[in-house]
Sequence to fold (161 residues):
Amino acid sequence: MTPTEPDHTAPAEVSVRRATAEDGPAVAALYTAARVHAVPQMPPALHTAEEDRAFYSRRMADDGVTAWVAEAGPEVLGFALCTPTFLDGIYIRPDLKGQGIGSLLLDVVEATHPDGYELWVFESNAGARRLYQRRGLVEVEHTDGSGNEEKAPDVRMAWRP
Fold:
C-alpha cells in the first residue's frame, strides 16, 4: 500500500458494546455517510445531517430502543438499532463494508433476540439482502414502497431461530 492509498481493512480489535445516548452524534454521522455512499443501492436519504443527528439522539435515548456500536478504540465503525421485535437499522462505515463488522453486529442482534426479529430492506439493496439471506433471514413481504419515506420498493425479512 502506498501512502496515498486508503486502508480499507477492518481494525484488528473490533468490539461491540451497548450504545448510549452520548453515541448519538457519532451514530448519526456514520448513518449520513453510509446513506450517501449507498446510492444507488439505496435511494438517496431525505434528511439533512442535522436532522439525522436530532433523530439518532432521540432514538438512542428511547427506552424502547437498544443500540449497539462496533468500535475500535473510540472510533465507531458500525451500529445496529433494535426494538424488541425489529432491527430498525444496521449501518457500517462505507470503507469497511465486507470486513465482517455487519456480521459481528448481527451476532449480537441474534443473541439479544432469541425469539427472532424482522427488518425492512430496500429491494434495490442486493448486497444487504444477500447478507441477510446468508444469516438465515427469509423474505416474507414485498411492497411497492408506498409505506416508506423514500417511496422505494422494499422487502420485509424475518429471522426465526
